[in-house]
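hey so i finally got around to running the thing on that chain from the lab meeting. sorry it took forever, my laptop kept dying and i had to restart like 3 times. anyway pasting the input first so we r on the same page abt which one it is
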Amino acid sequence: MLLLRVAFVVLSFAFSNAAPAPSAPSWHEGRDAPAADWVKGARVEGSAILPMRIGLVQTSLERGYDFLLEVSDPTSEKYGKYWSMEEVHDMFAPLEETVKAVREWLVSSGIHDSRVIHSDNKGWLAFDATVEEAENLLQTEFHEHQHMHSASVRVGCDKQAAPSRYAALITNST
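ok and heres what got predicted. didnt touch it at all, straight out
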């Protein structure tokens, strides 16, 4: 019996301190078909720098219409009491847990915390990344895309993925 208890304690300790299993990717964004006016070209060089933005799931969006009506309806106590930009940002800001979790994902993926900026409107985490870092982060490949009717060239990818434990916290990435 004592041996069984010792084994249980040892196994419990081992499993509680084991490294977490990698999260399965969850496709976050993708194209069903290529854009009609753009031609996919060469892969972008791995050392090129991309400005990256990760959109965070916001709170209270479902209440936005009601908030708008409150300040727009002459019969409302809140009529004409328009919100400041800061009040709007605070009302719809992502949960702190969301910001913390996504930031931790970025850091664990090799993006140093000092490079990550939380936007003034609180809805985005922004950083510059090499193409190699961005490809590893989003499990994708970046290519040049040439516009068929102009000289415009853009960088893009066909699909992006985030680990499933973070995908529900992200609205989009640019």
